[in-house]
Amino acid sequence: SRIQETLKIVIVGHVDHGKSTLIGRLLADTASVPQDRISAVQRRCTEQGKEMEYAFLLDALEEEQSQGITIDTTRIQFHSEKRDYVIIDAPGHKEFLKNMISGASDADAAFLLIDAQEGVREQTRRHASILKLLGVRQVHVVINKMDLLDYDQESFDQIVTDCQAALANAGLVARSYIPIAAKFGENIVHRSSNLTWYAGLTIIDTMDALTIEHSSHDAPVRLPVQDVYKFDHRRIIAGRLESGTLKAGDEIVCWPQGTRTRIKTLESWNLSEPPIELVQGLSVGVTLEDPVFLERGTLITNSDAPPLVGTHLTANVYWLGRNPLVMDRRYTIKITTQETSCEVKTIHRVYDSGDLSVISVEGGVPANFVGEVTLEAKQPLAFDPFAGVPETGRFVLMDGYEVCGGGIITGLAGEQSTDD
Ligand code: GDP
């Protein structure tokens, strides 16, 4: 039976290591693109006296896009027999970090691609740091171009050992190491007869075996309140259910106050009958058993999985502002529908988003740099670590009316004042 949810995959790898070839192969070998497109690319390669380049399949799709047809190549879709996937692609570190941290996208799993002939290089270390910074939990390492090493097991084992050390340095552990030859479609969808010593899964089987950390039924309930309406003497709470499911009778808690009550009814504006259960991603209306205090910005959760609540939070911020992110200046922080003023309490570390090198914290966080910071909000906020609930684990920073940064929350900072 097919799994409903679309899994979001990110593939990181140095240029020329074979990322486009791997993606092209995934599209072709799962029959996610029509055969005539593949034939067209094949013809073009033959005309130019070249071998088939699966990487050109992406160029071909891009061309179509520029002609106003279909596909966004930064979100490449394909499917296995089991489920749908989207590969989130980014041309470089900067765009990647910016997209990920600023909330344009988030990945369920990452594949780190290494050229077998190159082995582990500085790039691999940087990619590991990026994945760590982003809190991607399911990381698999793919070692490509095994044909250039004559499919030699010992060479593969050596790269695995080197890579394990590099990842450990960044605080990461890969879940598996997969030897492939993307060019020949080996161990991507079809098993390789040249790599019989490899007992693990192919790329597609690895993907199919991935679990989404929270399927919607065991995910914590997160309903940020957008508005409260008076309607026929009833108070209807409106918002988008960012995570989890809700039914009438469910016990809930309203944060940051921590007031408990129950869902009385589910409301619907466009269905003739009220729904029995609300699932994540829906814009919803509910009424509550008790007349609790509630306004735009209140976070409704289930009672079993409370959020973090406080004024101090630790975060990784991707900065885009014209002026650097500095201490002693007030910004506006927005987490879903919550909004308050904040300032930077501490800048722990500043990374160049291009090469991940660490620079001095003295001048604050310049544009296109990433800061590991502690923020202090004027009012208590309710949130989650990004690694726990991504939807309520990210925020936007504004300088005046301008969005100037985005970030992911890593936790609640220790310096809570007692009167919070
Ligand atoms: P990208 O820059 O990471 O997207 O790399 P490409 O997919 O464009 O591949 C770079 C080059 O490596 C191309 O010439 C590919 O044909 C070649 N290549 C990709 N995979 C393999 C492989 O498994 N074996 C060999 N020998 N070459 C490969």
Automatic annotation (TrEMBL):
Keywords: GTP-binding, Nucleotide-binding. This is GTP-binding protein. It holds the Pfam family GTP_EFTU. The lineage of its organism: Bacteria, Bacillati, Bacillota, Clostridia, Eubacteriales. Residues 4-221 form the Tr-type G domain. It comes from Heliobacterium mobile (Heliobacillus mobilis). InterPro entries: G_TR_CS (IPR031157), GTP-eEF1A_C (IPR054696), P-loop_NTPase (IPR027417), Small_GTP-bd (IPR005225), T_Tr_GTP-bd_dom (IPR000795), TRAFAC_GTPase_members (IPR050100), Transl_B-barrel_sf (IPR009000), Transl_elong_EF1A/Init_IF2_C (IPR009001). Gene3D superfamilies: P-loop containing nucleotide triphosphate hydrolases, Translation factors. GO terms for molecular function: GTP binding; GTPase activity. PANTHER family: TRANSLATION FACTOR (PTHR23115).
